[in-house]
Structure formats: structure tokens, C-alpha cells
């Protein structure tokens, strides 16, 4: 998944927040996400990557926000979103394969049995194969990003 | 004579009706095509023709590394006392459903009803085996995809080969749920350390849903291994138990029963 760097997120978020949206306005797409300062933006949560949340704004551009910069309710909402996505039963073996592979790679790296570069390469390969499973099993386009997010965060 | 005839007919009908006999139990471990034991989302079903005879919703790992247990109600013969009852010799069909859809099953989806009261172990895998080598094609495809082009297709994957050269064959890696393409990933005990006069701590990388046992021997020459009492935390009492993997490194405390002890880690895999 491509995303802006964490360093550029405050500027992008400021631009997004400086747009037209405010709390209480219903979102045409995505959800309203509020930062700790009370500013809100219409965006779709795409992934949680470590301590960051990756969003896709109403203009289709992706941006990264540290979870810590979101309001407590928004931060909890982002964490809950990962748990809410239901994995289609037919996808379960491929989904579990991806999750288990990512987890095992992480454990091997932490134990010094795998280099960072090989782990990154294998992680990408595992996620790519999950994407192929989406195609093979006809998983709805709308849920693919969220399923990838869930796989990354389990 | 008029009174005798209905009585005879009644006796004849009663004689043809089946009676319940002790059930047959079919149990085992169902894995995905990639080797991981199912822990939820799957249902094991036995049918006779179009009639469902038994089902089991997998909801976790049972003792001894199992995840399903079916009870087949047995009938003595004649007119079954219930449509779902089976009699010895009946041809049955096994299926594993994911979201209500039956998956391909290996090594077989056929089951012949056994004797009343019998117990049968049948380990299953929801995959296909086009090259009939005992390994699911899907798992072999994963190995090929991670082989950097060294394996062109599933026909190149041999269960007895050791693709990554870590000392375990491809089949052993499938059964242990370790990466068959990564030399550094192998089922092994790590960080074995003494924590008291009789207790030792060790770690191993588990796989989700896999069940592990630890056994020991005082002499490698004896070939006699005994189960170890263990605990999952320091300070806890040790007991004879298994460890069900969650994908993380598992820390286990074991208690020695002699001055010298060799410990073996066993992944309970069919």
C-alpha cells in the first residue's frame, strides 16, 4: 500500500482539516475523524501501521496520522474498526495463512533468526498472495483494504 | 385365525424396525490446505445420500491435538429407527464446510460406517492433491511461490526433499507448520536454561492451533522417552499437559526427574 510519510502527515492533515469539513456534517464517503484539537476530516481508514493510522481522504489521496494525535474516541474507533471486519468464510484459509505468516516472520525477526530485509520481502509476498486470493475468490472490492488492514494488525 | 393374522403382521413389522446401537465415534484433526488446524469457521458433516447424519462445528482445539469429534447414531438394520441413523457398512460422505460451502477434502471424503461402539480416527485437510503425493497442492504452490524460481510447479515438490536444507523434510515442515522455504525456521527448542535445582526454562516458536508435547529421557541410547511435567509460568505447579500454539514464542518451565535429561519437543501432527 502506498502512503505518505509520517513526516508529511501534519501538513496534509492540516490541509484536509483546513478544507470544508467540520463535526456534525455527514460524510459523503468514509467517516469523520477528529484529532485531539477537535478538528475533523472526512476520510476512510485504510490501515493501522504500527502507531500510525493510514487514511484515504475524500479527494482520494492517502495520508498518515499518528494514532496518538487522534481524539480518544477516534483512536478507539480506529482500533475497533480492525476488529469489526468479518473475514468471509471462503477466504479464511488464505487469510489465516497471511496472518500466521506475518506473525511468524515477526517472531523470527525479533528472535534474530531473520533479517529485516528478508522479513519485509516475505511480508510483502504474503500480502500480495492474499490479494491474489481476493481475486480468485471474488472478495468484494470494498472490503479488500479493510481485510488487508485486519491481516496486518492481527 | 382372524385375530392371529394382525398379531403376526405386527410382530413382522416390529422385527423389521431397527433399534439403536452404541454410536460410532469419528474424530481427528482438520487442517486448512496450508496446514493450519482449523480453530473456528468450519463445520464437519457426515451425510448418507442426501440425509445429514452428524455434524460438528469446530470451535477450538481439543485435547491430544484434535479439533473435531462426530457421533454417528447406529442402527441394527431393517427400517432405521431414525433417518439419520446408520448401520454397519453404510457408505457415507464426509465434508468440511466453510460458510456453508463444502471444500475439497483429502485424503478422502468417503467413510464406511463401522461397527457399533467403534472409534475411528480420520485426519483431514481441505485441499486438493492432484499429484497424489500426500501434500496439498495449495501448500506446494506456496512453496513454489517462495522458491525464487527453483521449483517450477507442484510436480517439483517432493515430500521427502528438504527444500530449505534445515534438516526437516518438506512433509515434516508441512506437519509442523513451519516455513519449508526458510532455513532458519525449524521446530526447535531455544534458550534452554536452568532456573532452579530441578526446573528449566525453554522456548520454542509455536504455530497457531498446533499442539505440542515435551518428552525426556535420561539416556539417548535407551530410546525410552517419558512425558515431562511442565508449567507455562515460573512459580506455577507443573503438571502433565500439552501446549496449544498461538503463533508466538512459548515459554515453558519443565521439571527434571533425574540428574541428566535430554528433552524433545513434539508437534502433535498426524
Largest sheet of chain A: 4 strands, antiparallel
Give the fraction of residues assigned to helices of chain A. 40-55%
CATH architecture of the largest domain in chain A: Roll
Distance between the ends of chain A:
17 Å
In DSSP terms, counting alpha (H) and pi (I) runs of 4 or more, how many helices of chain B?
3
Mean of all residue-level pLDDT scores of chain A: 77
- Quaternary arrangement of the chains shown? heterodimer
The number of E-state strands of chain A comes to: 4
The CATH architecture category of the largest domain in chain B equals Sandwich
Q: Which geometry of chain A do the CA atoms define?
A: globular
Offer a few descriptive terms.
heterodimer, A: 154 residues, SH3 type barrels, disordered N terminus, B: 270 residues, mainly beta, Immunoglobulin-like, five-stranded antiparallel sheet, 19 strands
Explain this structure to me?
The complex is a heterodimer of chains A (154) and B (270). With 154 residues, chain A is of the alpha+beta class. Chain A has two domains: 6-84, SH3 type barrels, CATH 2.30.30; 89-153. Chain A is built from five helices and four strands. Chain A has helices spanning 9-17, 72-84, 92-110, 116-137, 141-153; strands at residues 31-34, 40-49, 52-57, 62-66. A four-stranded antiparallel β-sheet of chain A has the order 1-2-3-4. In chain A, a hairpin with a 4-residue loop joins strand 3 (52-57) and strand 4 (62-66). Chain A is globular, with a radius of gyration of 17 Å. Residues 1-29 of chain A have low confidence and may be disordered. Chain B is mainly beta and 270 residues long. Chain B has three domains: 15-126, Immunoglobulins (Immunoglobulin-like); 129-186, no CATH class; 190-267. In chain B, strands 3, 4, 6, 7 and 8 form a five-stranded antiparallel β-sheet that branches. In chain B, strand 3 (42-48) and strand 4 form a beta hairpin. Chain B is globular and about 70 Å long.
Amino acid at each position: 500500500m502506498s502512503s505518505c510519510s509520517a513526516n508529511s502527515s501534519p501538513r496534509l492533515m492540516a490541509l484536509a482539516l483546513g478544507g470544508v469539513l467540520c463535526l456534525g456534517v455527514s460524510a459523503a464517503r468514509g467517516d469523520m475523524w477528529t484529532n485531539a484539537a477537535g478538528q475533523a476530516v472526512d476520510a476512510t481508514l485504510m490501515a493501522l501501521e504500527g502507531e500510525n493510522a493510514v487514511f484515504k481522504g475524500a479527494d482520494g489521496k492517502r495520508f498518515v496520522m499518528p494514532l496518538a494525535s487522534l481524539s480518544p474516541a477516534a483512536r478507539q474507533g480506529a482500533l475497533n474498526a480492525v476488529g469489526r471486519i468479518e473475514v468471509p468464510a471462503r477466504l479464511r484459509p488464505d487469510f489465516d495463512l497471511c496472518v500466521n505468516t506475518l506473525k511468524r516472520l515477526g517472531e523470527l525477526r525479533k528472535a534474530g533468526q531473520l533479517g529485516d530485509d528478508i522479513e519485509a520481502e516475505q511480508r510483502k509476498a504474503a500480502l500480495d498472495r492474499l490479494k491474489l486470493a481476493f481475486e480468485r475468490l471474488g472478495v468484494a472490492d470494498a472490503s479488500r483494504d479493510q481485510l488487508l488492514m485486519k491481516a496486518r494488525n492481527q | 385365525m382372524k385375530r392371529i393374522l394382525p398379531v403376526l403382521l405386527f410382530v413382522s413389522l416390529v422385527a423389521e424396525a431397527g433399534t439403536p446401537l452404541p454410536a460410532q465415534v469419528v474424530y481427528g484433526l482438520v487442517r486448512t490446505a496450508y496446514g493450519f488446524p482449523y480453530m473456528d469457521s468450519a463445520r464437519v458433516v457426515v451425510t448418507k445420500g442426501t440425509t445429514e447424519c452428524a455434524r460438528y462445528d469446530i470451535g477450538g482445539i481439543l485435547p491430544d491435538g484434535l479439533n473435531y469429534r462426530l457421533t454417528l447414531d447406529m442402527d441394527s438394520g431393517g427400517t432405521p429407527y431414525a433417518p439419520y441413523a446408520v448401520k454397519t457398512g453404510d457408505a457415507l460422505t464426509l465434508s468440511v464446510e466453510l460458510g456453508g460451502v463444502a471444500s475439497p477434502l483429502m485424503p478422502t471424503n468417503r467413510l464406511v460406517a463401522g461397527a457399533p461402539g467403534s472409534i475411528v480416527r480420520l485426519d483431514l485437510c481441505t485441499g486438493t492433491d492432484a499429484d497424489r503425493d500426500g501434500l496439498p497442492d495449495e501448500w506446494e504452490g506456496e512453496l513454489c511461490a517462495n522458491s525464487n524460481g527453483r521449483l517450477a510447479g507442484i510436480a517439483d515438490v517432493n515430500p521427502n526433499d528438504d527444500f530449505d536444507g534445515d534438516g526437516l523434510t518438506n512433509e515434516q515442515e508441512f506437519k509442523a507448520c513451519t516455513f519449508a522455504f526458510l532455513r532458519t525456521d525449524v521446530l526447535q527448542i531455544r534458550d534452554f536454561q536452568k532456573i532452579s535445582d530441578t526446573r528449566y526454562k525453554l522456548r520454542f516458536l509455536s504455530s497457531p492451533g498446533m499442539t505440542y508435547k515435551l518428552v525426556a529421557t535420561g539416556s539417548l541410547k535407551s530410546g525410552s522417552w517419558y512425558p515431562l511435567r511442565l508449567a507455562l509460568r515460573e512459580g506455577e505447579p507443573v503438571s502433565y499437559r500439552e501446549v496449544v500454539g498461538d503463533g508466538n514464542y512459548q515459554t515453558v518451565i519443565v521439571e527434571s526427574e533425574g540428574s541428566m535429561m535430554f528433552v524433545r519437543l513434539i508437534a502433535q501432527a498426524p
